[in-house]
Structures are given as structure tokens and as C-alpha cells.
Design a protein that fits this description.
This protein is mostly beta strands. Helices cover about 10% and strands about 35% of the residues. β6 and β7 form a beta hairpin.
Length: about 280
Amino acid sequence: MSRLALLSLALIMTSSAYAQRTIGGVRTDRAPTIDGDLSDPAWQQAPKADKFVDPFTGKEVEDQTTAWIAYDDKAIYIAFHCLAKDVEGLIGKEIRPGAAFDGEDFVAVRLDPFGLGRIEEMTRFQVNLLGTQNFISGVGRAGKAEWRGEWKSVAKKVADGYVVEIEIPWAALDYPGGPNKTMAVNFVRWHPKEGRRSLWSNATAQELAELQGRWLEVNPPKRSAPRPKALVYGLGEVNEDRITLDAGLDLRYQPTSQITLVGSANPDFKNVEQSIERLQFART
């Protein structure tokens, strides 16, 4: 083979390793049950994202991952099947929602319904091996847990690795109206023993917007008419000689899909869910 042919082959391999990947938008007629079982018919019809790569080398990693994505008018559904040579060596420790998963096996789906693909604009839904959730809001989004509502996830060890299923309600996202939208999406897996991650669409270590994946021809549900929402909270405290009461109010109004107005009176500066560290039960 000539030197020119070898150079051309190398360029083709390099460009394919760093090419933006796409996945089709498929509407499911029957939502999958979020239970860690991938035999659900919805996953058989959903398009899959596979051949995850190392963002530094662009090469496919040894412990591979396959992800699936589908949607209906209620929610977006994502599944991961993460292969592992050493299943017993998988690491899952954190049980507190919202905590960082340092040194653990976990997966993430990144979504930017407006299709920009900038990492700071992408909302990240992360789930570790124990099914614990972490949510990282895109810049400018109202990230308070009580505003965005609940999203579901289940993680389960299987014979050849582990499985994660996720359900993200459309109501938890800001998204544009209209048919046939192109949205930015990427699927990520962390490999703690190897000290690296793997990506479906290789945005490289620099997280280049133009290399984040694209979810094509998505038809999200029609947004409901905007209306103000209020969240009232209170705190009571009993000391030896006195009782104190504190209360506050959060207001939220979203006039358009890209503008959210949030205000607080006597704010608590945190999510209620993060105030609960853990629940413990003992014989006494």
C-alpha cells in the first residue's frame, strides 16, 4: 500500500472517530416499565447508541455500552446496558440523591432540547450502580428539584455487567415547540477502575458542541399555556425555652420555552430533598 493510501486511511479513521453521531427520534406506542429489565418490547423498537469510545484516543473501549432512547407525549425513556469483564468489581457507594459519584460506576444522559450542544447548556441526568440520582441543570434553567418534578431511574446488576433505565418527563425540561426538532444528546459512562469515561458521540475531552450527538426528528408534546407557580415552605424549631417559625415563598413563571423567571421571598437557598441526609433504622 502506498504512503498516500496509508495517509488517506489514517485520515478517514481519525475523522470517523471524531464525527458527530446521530440517532433517530422514535415514538413508542407503549412506555417501557422502569424496572431494570431490558426485555420490554419498547426497547426492541427503540434506536440504539453503541460503540462507545475513549474521548482522548477516539478508540472504542473494551467494556462496551449500548444505550436506547424513545419517547411519547409523557416522557423520554433511556436504557443502558453496560458490559463489564469484572462484574463483582463494579463500584456503587453513594445513596444520597444529588451527590457526586466520585470513584463509582455510573451513566449519564445529556440533553439539550434546543440543539445547541454546548456542555453548559446540556442538562445531565446521572444514575449510579445503586440507582442513586444526580441532576445537573443547564445554565439558565431553574434547577430547583421541587420545580422540575420527579424523574425515575432503576439500576440493576446483571450477569455481564449492569443495566440502567431512566424516565424523564417532558415537564421536567424546557424545550421548543413544533414538529421535527433536532435536539442535542449524548450518552456517557464512567469506568472508575480505569480512571476514564466513554462517550457515544465523541465530543473529545474539550466537550466540543459540534461533536455532541444529535437526536433527529423529535416531535415533543405541545406545551401547556404558561402560568405562574408558587412553592411555599415552612420550618419550625423547638428549643428549651422558645418556639420559632420560619416560612418562605418561591415564584416561577415561564413566559416562553427559553425564558424562566424565578423569584424568592425569604429563600431557603437549597432543595428540600438535599436537606435529608439519610434515614436509618435500628432495633431501638
